[in-house]
Amino acid sequence: MAAWNSKHVRHFVARTLFGYSKNDVSVAMSYGSFSELLDAALLKEIPAPAAPNAWVNTPPAASQVTSNEVGTWYREFNYWWFKLMYKEGLNMQEKMVLFLHNHFANERDKVQYPQNMYAQNALFRKYAFGNFKQLVKEISIDPAMLIYLDGNNSRGSVPNENYARELLELFTMGIGNYSEADVKQAAKVLSGWQVSGLKANFVAGRWYTESSVTVLGKTAKFDINSLVDHIFDQKATAEFLCRKLYKEFVYYKPNEAFVLQMAVVLRANNYEIKPLLKFLFSSEEFFTPAYLGSKIKNPTELMVGACKLFELPTPDYINMYELSKVLQMQLFQPPDVAGWPGQREWISSTTYSYRGGFSDSLITGKRYNGVAVSGKLVPVPYAQTFLNSENAVEFVDDVLALFLQFPVTAKKKAFLLETLLGGTIVKNWSTYTPGANVNLQQFFKAVMRLPEFQLC
Q: Is the model's pTM score more than 0.70?
């Protein structure tokens, strides 16, 4: 087990949460062990949050599209989820909900109605630490998924293969572990469901009529539950999910030997996610020195995490929503059924500049388009929350230790110190001097525009 120290705790919460505040780190340290932190906070079951508004129970209707109510509701839905991420404390439920949203990627442009997407989001929250096999059974008849991958139009006599293909390729087993014949036969089993408003109903007359089908080497009169059970009996399924979790939380190049260890744990616990996460986050592998600070933050982690660092009382969720589109991670609108690819795909000559523009906006109070943000940093009081705020050299060290997971060079540290001092000398630095506010603004902007700030 890794040593219990502030460096490892910061790595721990950086990967399992949407960033952290100085207080989050302090509270996490108070647990005294990773096991206690996992049991009492990170993996603790919490109540479902209140819905964003009454529209979640409103039956879908074409008039909601033409009037653009759906657009207004999707905005509210995004703000609601950003707020849950920001207010998550030390519980990683929302991080797992986003992982599942990306794993079972659906696009709002096709699903159309936020009511259906909200129900799917609630399903992910229900199973964030729960049984992945059961989640697959339920997502297979989820209205948003039925609409998105055309199960809504599938009949046993002429089955639509879209969901069957993605079920095997992207959701459970991965390419190379099934045949085209498996897709075609599974599609028959998955037929028969039709969306009606907020619900999905099984219509027996739309189901397949054969006495049996053969999928993955087994011949039976499958229904959805027995088909999913059979898929999860395949060795590749546990390995596929564990590999994806490893890439999300540990390192983008999976250690296959460790993935196999994870798969053993997952199968031994009948596909319960919580024991697997506890095994992963308690492992030496998770704390491998080379992996610390090796993950490029996704735009949501970057934006929510930056607001947490500054402990903003009222983050501007409209700002986050607008920038999420520019940064190519609009919630509920992944690029395709494979989800956001992540890691290096997050950074381009365009997005890197706008990432810096977002962190600047928290300091300047202006968005990239000049519109005022509703909440911004007040630099001097914030700086004074640091124990060494009146010692310029130690203050720079303290800020870098909190803000970055990846160490900076001596040259960069010297540049940041010069930026903070703004032309004065070290012994003259004080947060109480007239120019301190401007100096701190420039300093924090410089820190958050470092390439190292993009990493967690």
A: yes
